[in-house]
Specification:
alpha/beta; nine-stranded parallel β-sheet; 2 domains; Lyase, Ornithine Decarboxylase, Chain A, domain 1
Length: about 350
């Protein structure tokens, strides 16, 4: 076996394609539009696997990411980040070849875009149902009404619908808890749709899309993490370990105690995202990996990270080992930190480098 020189991002292509196929068919068979979020994989090559399943509209988190995918032929793009004037120059480039869907929460911004864009664009109003991340509070009906009226008077801005990303589902443990968290947000969207019958309603989180069996009343879904899943999603109950498609292989460096080892893999490779399991903070879970099965190495996890170093707890090396395979806590952030993927045969798969 060749000695691993540096941390490497390992992509199981078969598992990834299976995740794409399963989610696409589930959503489309429910009568919903599927606009997957591409911020997780950030790869034209992986984007083409979605095309093979019939996906034509996508979601991204920045104008730079939109330009990258637009150059790859994607021409129906939602930018799922609140508009701010610094986006304008790149939106002017994008509108030449792309149908844009924007998040706008200000009447002044509608005026600015109507003045400086040439083509029509669609607008989501992002709704904050309690998570507090971004969007207009659900109860601020006056602001919601004013924005919609402004768009209806506008020449270019066309009201498309309401969007919720309820990040609180990422704190859940089990499908019942996911459903109990997301249902009030769905109810809020349905209430708004009752007031604005032409509105489309859209939800954008992987736990909800993975666990719900039916998407009654929902028009669009925009999950992204499901393409790879990760150790957090396993703990939430969104997937099994054998549905995870992304891993980081780290060079084994030193046994420092009977039950601890140092690996070459730190925050610059895995991010500082953690998950607490049984009262212990984990930065990533050690696994035995094969093409057919993935086994969790019980008790063996990254218990500490510095910039380049990782401390692996409850791990005892043997002389034949040169690397440790880690299931990341958050695949979106981990993937963003690497310049490319490698499949199981060692073939490089391109991606964007950093957001």
């Amino acid at each position: 076996m060749a000695i691993l020189r540096r941390p490497t991002l390992l992509l199981d292509v078969d598992r990834c394609k299976r995740n794409i196929k399963n989610m696409t068919r589930k959503i489309i068979s429910s009568g919903c539009e599927f606009r997957p979020h591409f911020k997780t994989h950030q790869s034209l090559a992986i984007g083409n696997w979605f095309r093979e399943e019939g996906v034509s509209g996508i979601t991204v988190s920045s104008t730079e990411m939109a330009l990258y995918f637009s150059r790859g032929g994607w021409d129906d793009i939602t930018i799922a980040f609140p508009f701010y004037p610094g986006m304008l120059t790149q939106l002017q480039l994008l509108e030449k070849s792309t149908q844009l869907r924007l998040f706008i929460n200000s009447e002044d911004d509608i005026d600015l875009l109507n003045r400086d864009l040439i083509n029509n664009f669609k607008v989501y109003i992002e709704i904050d149902t309690g998570s507090g991340r971004s969007g207009i509070p659900f109860n601020d009906r006056s602001k919601i009404s004013s924005l919609i009226n402004k768009m209806r008077e506008s020449g270019k801005a066309h009201f498309h619908g309401f969007y919720v990303h309820d990040g609180r589902t990422y704190t859940a443990r089990g499908s019942d808890e996911i459903l109990s968290i997301i249902q009030p947000s769905i109810d809020a969207l349905l209430e708004l749709k009752g007031e604005y019958s032409d509105a489309r309603i859209s939800i954008g989180d992987t736990p909800t899309a993975s666990v719900l069996n039916k998407f009654e009343g929902i028009d669009e879904l925009t999950p992204g993490n499901f393409v790879f899943y990760d150790w957090t999603q396993v703990q939430i109950g969104s997937c099994s370990i054998n549905e995870v498609a992304l891993f980081v292989q780290l060079p084994f460096a030193q046994q420092i105690q009977d039950s601890k080892a140092i690996v070459h893999g730190g925050a610059v490779h895995l991010s500082k995202d953690t998950i607490q399991i049984d009262g212990k903070q984990s930065y990533g879970q050690a696994v035995d990996f094969s093409e057919t099965d993935i086994h969790v190495i019980e008790g063996s996890y990254l218990s500490a990270l510095s910039q380049e170093h990782g401390t692996l707890s409850s791990y005892q090396s043997n002389t034949s080992e040169q690397l440790v395979t880690i299931c990341p806590v958050h695949s979106c952030l981990t993937a963003n930190l690497f310049e490319c993927y490698y499949d199981l045969d060692g073939t490089q798969i391109e991606k964007r480098i950093l957001s």
